[in-house]
């Protein structure tokens, strides 16, 4: 199988133009249009903040960071904006989160929302809206986002290390970690498409370039030309942050699992199946372990502070 076969699934993430209709699956606490009476222009305010950040800076890496923020938030303590909290030993300080970007966009959106509708819109919902808005700005789908999440007050570096799927994990390991969060193999493959945008640190994949048990030290499953290019960007003693292709072991090993590879090829060969699959995966992920006021949920006035 040619490695190039892996790319269309990512391309479809950016090129799909079908408007998605949400199908809320498991969280009665979330609803589309939740802020209609509480803060009518909430989603528009977030969208403006995202658009200004991307078009103003010309740095799409910031936008890609917004998708990662939402994902990294939901996988640790659920979608409660705990990834945004500052302080020692918080999720921000965990190695997988040191390269997260886009915090300032969330800060801007939150500040504008607090001026327009004080104490009404949660940081967790801002993360969900911002991830969707980034997809739209990249030329992707415009889908509705169920909202009504509440924010948490606890953030743990050790929990981030425990629950965030590592870039060097194999299919079985990553699948198990997704399953703990109620996500299927299908969801895992679809959500892996988000790796198509943004940048990666060399440390996340350099083992595939230099540490494999092969004559040249390169992972045999990696395209040789691609590996040679990456070595120019990531020399063995350190280097930069190249654009994503199939960088991570966790992505590459999808092709080494029959069921996962079939899903990759299905999305590649039938791109119009992507909108429904993407919708289902994003909605499910965005509903992981939603907090209620009874178990500590609140609306933080400052997304960086537990208050």
UniProtKB/TrEMBL annotation:
Binds 2 calcium ions per subunit. Binds 1 heme b (iron(II)-protoporphyrin IX) group per subunit. It is an enzyme of class 1 (oxidoreductase). InterPro entries: Haem_peroxidase, Haem_peroxidase_sf, Peroxidase_pln, Peroxidases_AS, Peroxidases_heam-ligand_BS, Secretory_peroxidase. Disulfide bonds join 39-117, 74-79, 123-303, 202-234. Residues 29-307 form the Plant heme peroxidase family profile domain. Ca(2+) 2 binds at residue 241. It catalyses: 2 a phenolic donor + H2O2 = 2 a phenolic radical donor + 2 H2O. GO terms for molecular function: heme binding; lactoperoxidase activity; metal ion binding. Heme b binds at residue 195. The record marks 68 as: Transition state stabilizer. The active site is at 72 (proton acceptor). Its EC number is 1.11.1.7. Its cofactor is Ca(2+); heme b. One of its GO terms (cellular component) is extracellular region. Keywords: Calcium, Disulfide bond, Glycoprotein, Heme, Hydrogen peroxide, Iron, Metal-binding, Oxidoreductase, Peroxidase, Secreted, Signal. Ca(2+) 1 binds at residues 73, 76, 78, 80, 82, 91. This is Peroxidase. The gene is LOC109708667.
């Amino acid at each position: 199988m040619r490695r190039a076969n892996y790319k269309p699934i990512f391309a479809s993430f950016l090129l799909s133009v079908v408007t998605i209709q949400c199908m809320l699956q498991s969280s009665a606490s979330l609803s589309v249009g939740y802020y209609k009476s509480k803060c009518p222009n909430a989603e528009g305010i977030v969208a403006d903040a995202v658009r200004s950040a991307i078009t103003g800076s010309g740095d799409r890496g910031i936008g890609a960071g917004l998708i990662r923020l939402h994902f990294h938030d939901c996988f640790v303590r659920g979608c409660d904006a705990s990834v945004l909290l500052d302080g020692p030993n918080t999720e921000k300080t965990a190695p997988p989160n040191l390269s997260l970007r886009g915090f300032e966009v969330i800060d801007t959106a939150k500040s504008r929302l607090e001026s327009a509708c004080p104490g009404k819109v949660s940081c967790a919902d801002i993360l969900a809206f911002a991830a969707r808005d980034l997809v739209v700005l990249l030329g992707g789908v415009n889908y509705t986002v169920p909202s009504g999440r509440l924010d948490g007050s606890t953030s743990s570096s050790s929990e981030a290390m425990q629950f965030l799927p590592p870039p060097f994990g194999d299919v079985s390991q990553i699948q198990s970690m997704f399953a703990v969060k109620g996500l299927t193999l299908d969801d895992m493959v679809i959500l892996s498409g988000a790796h198509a945008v943004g940048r990666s640190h060399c440390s996340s994949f350099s083992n595939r370039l230099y540490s494999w048990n092969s004559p040249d030290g390169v992972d045999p499953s990696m395209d040789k030309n691609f590996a040679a290019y990456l070595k120019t960007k990531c020399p063995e003693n350190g280097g930069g942050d190249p654009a994503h292709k199939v960088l991570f072991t966790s992505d590459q090993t999808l092709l080494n699992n029959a069921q996962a590879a079939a899903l990759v090829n299905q999305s590649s060969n039938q791109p119009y199946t992507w909108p429904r699959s993407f919708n289902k995966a994003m909605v499910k992920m965005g509903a992981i372990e939603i907090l209620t006021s009874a178990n500590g949920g609140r609306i933080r006035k400052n997304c960086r502070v537990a208050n």
